[in-house]
């Protein structure tokens, strides 16, 4: 799996805005390749607009406005990096897909090559009564591009349902209340082959 970069430290405010605009436009035009971006493109566009507005205000050298611009820039960079994890997962080893999303390619970090480690310490905590939600958490791994959480009714022979997350936490909703489910998770790294955790069980309230 290829790593990608936005080179945010080398970009001026204007260049970063142009990068974000390029990524938003290209991914919107490639909806077949990127059907469910995480975060959604609406989140990216909102962060871009907020940063653009703050940069305009900061042009008058107001100290508070300059601090807000810095904050909004950091928020935009965070959204771009999270979105980059999603694109990297979709792309696998195909650098052309990364480029189609508007990101740049950087040399792969060889320290995370090879089979991903088995995900550890998966925890499932049911949400409030009647919510049909379970909160999942696993130990974070620095080499993970994404986390794939899977679930199904315990004791069934159904295929596992999957949900991707850019973080080591995840909320599964729409579950049947007062039913017991089993859950498992895998890191998705440079090597996209899964290595699932031991399955754990929890009742849904």
Describe what you observe in this structure.
This protein has 205 residues and is α+β, with helices and mostly antiparallel strands. It has 2 domains: 3-106, no CATH class; 113-203, Immunoglobulin-like, CATH 2.60.40.10. Helices cover 34% and strands 21% of the residues. It has 4 helices and 9 strands. The protein has helices spanning 13-29, 41-58, 63-91, 95-100, and strands at 3-5, 104-106, 123-126, 134-137, 146-153, 161-165, 169-172, 180-188, 200-203. The strands form 3 sheets. A 4-stranded antiparallel β-sheet has the order 6-5-8-9. It has a 3-stranded antiparallel β-sheet with strand order 3-4-7, with no helix packed on it. Strands 1-2 form a two-stranded antiparallel sheet. Strand 3 (123-126) and strand 4 (134-137) form a beta hairpin. Helix 1 packs antiparallel against helix 2 (41-58).
In short:
34% of the residues lie in helices and 21% in strands.
Can you tell me the overall shape? globular
- Report the count of strand segments: 9
How does the major sheet shape up? 4 strands, antiparallel
DSSP strand content: 15-25%
Structural class: alpha+beta
Order of helices and strands: EHHHHEEEEEEEE
Indicate the radius of gyration in whole angstroms. Answer: 19 Å
